[in-house]
């Protein structure tokens, strides 16, 4: 099994953390994973995307052209990457900010991630709303593995944010 995932959005939306969480979760489960970040010229507000490859066998290239799955958080990223998903692939998109302008050749699902994150008082948790929805569909990892990964990346300095991200994740699972 090898899965390629592209995650794209504005800087500051949690694109990179989402990719890191997926890659680290794979390693916790004894799988191979590569995370490759790509930033636009700005850090916050500019475009950002990352590529994650997860496999049960060694990975020989960190890059790919077309992905199995696309998680897209904003309209400019949707426009840029909508044609880079394999025909049998899947796109999960932030329906709060993205309106599909054409019927994709692959499966897609919209989640009102911004609206759901705002409902728990943390607008920055849209990435975890989408992560919950993505993992509900793919069953790649369970919630406990995601929380372990989140604790690793947040450490003690951001430990107070774990509960709200867990809430966002659960909202995504229910979406």
Automatic annotation (TrEMBL):
Pyruvate/ketoisovalerate oxidoreductase catalytic domain sequence ranges: 11-172
InterPro entries linked: 2-oxoglutarate_synth_KorC (IPR052554), Pyrv/ketoisovalerate_OxRed_cat (IPR019752), Pyrv_flavodox_OxRed_cen (IPR002869)
Coiled-coil annotated residue ranges, if any: none
Keywords in alphabetical order: Oxidoreductase
Superkingdom of origin: Bacteria
Pfam families (alphabetical): POR
Protein name in UniProt: 2-oxoacid:acceptor oxidoreductase family protein
Lineage, uppermost ranks: Bacteria, Bacillati, Mycoplasmatota, Mollicutes, Acholeplasmatales
